Amino acid sequence: MLKYDVGNIFIYSLKNKWYIMVINNELLEQRKKISDKRPKFKRQESWRYKRLATNWRKPDGIDNKMRKQFSGYPALVKIGYGSPKLARGLHPSGFVDNLVYNVNDLSALDKKKDAARIAHTVGNKKRLDIIAKAESLGIKLLNGKKVQSKKTSSDIKTSDKKEQ
Description:
Elements: E1 2-6, E2 9-14, E3 17-22, H1 25-37, E4 96-100, H2 103-106, E5 114-118, H3 124-137, E6 140-141, H4 153-163
Parallel strand pairs: 4-5, 5-6
Antiparallel strand pairs: 1-2, 2-3
């Protein structure tokens, strides 16, 4: 794998194909830094009762010490813990994640900063078309594995006969 770093653009070669990847390093590092400082928000008294999961629920009792933010109780979810606006929606690779349903959706994407993710409702035939088009346009696919076309029934019958 060959790598070239040209300013804000990262160019690399994989299996004799060249890919351009924009890396928003500053944004990703800033998001990671804020994420590391962010506390793990816990449901109140989940540490006390096994039947309560630790996932977040907002405390709403009238005398609730966690809601009143007494010291010694876990932090509440607040807007200040959010990540930077520009870093939201970025894939860890630095691309902006875009959901694609058909081939026409690819034409609206910029190959230098957008990456495509094929929707899970897309069938096999259209998926193969999207993968081929994205490859020709040079757009990065986040979940675009080559899907094997289904074997025909005659192929299956002949392979069964060979095994016997």
